[in-house]
Write the structure tokens for this entry.
Amino acid sequence: MEENSKIPVHVSIIMDGNGRWAKERGKERFYGHVEGVESVRACTEEAIRKGVKYLSLFAFSEENWNRPEDEVRSLMGLMVKAMVNELPTFQKNGIKFIVLGNRSRLDDSLNAEIDECMGLTAGYTNLNLVIFLSYSGRWDILQAAKRLALEAAADPSAAQAVRDMDAGGFSRYLSTGGIPDPDLIIRTSGELRISNYLLWQCAYSEMYFTDTLWPDFKAAEFDAALAEYAKRDRRYGKVK
Ligand code: FPP
């Protein structure tokens, strides 16, 4: 098999361990999130170098809204700042910036920044950088099912199309519609869970778990995950 065919099209990362990384250094949790942004930058650069076309990152889950208010506020602030600071880099490197999740829970100023950043990078194709913000897998499946049900209720002639719908057709109603499912999902910090992430989309993803905490996950660690992926034999339930 050609070497390049072993490069995953879509790598997705559950970034975990920022708080523990900071604690190990006797610092506030926020310090871990700040270094976590450096890991986002390092992995984005490495993804481009390796020819990965989609890099998606679980930046903030629906469950994360239950964290202390000041941590939520500082995390959101950090993400706005990173987005504004990185916009020239996105433009220079041809990165299309996409935010997916329950954006109705984000405040207006953050939504406005996101729309601007998405609009200004919409034409780029070098790398799609997808940030999952206020996201959960169950939310995504539920919003897709609701949309489909409402569409069908509004147009009774669509009933047959709903009966005939296959998994590919349903996928188009998910927030990730049009984005290929992740080939590789990485989770840092030693936790061995999917934590309500891409529940539908992970059906055939290869999973890579590492004890490395997210702030320590830079280009070399990203490459190690790609090397492990290249060794996997993907069969999609079939016999080879
Ligand atoms: C998990 O560590 C990390 C998060 C919930 C936030 C991740 C967000 C960033 C690194 C900023 C992303 C920035 C951009 C631009 C996308 P944790 O706090 O759960 O750590 P712990 O498990 O050790 O407590």
Summary: The pocket of farnesyl diphosphate is lined by residues 15-20, 33, 36-37, 40, 57, 59, 64, 75, 78-79, 82, 131, 189 (CB under 6 Å). The chain has a mean pLDDT of 95. Residues 10-136+182-229 form a domain with the Undecaprenyl pyrophosphate synthetase fold (CATH 3.40.1180.10).
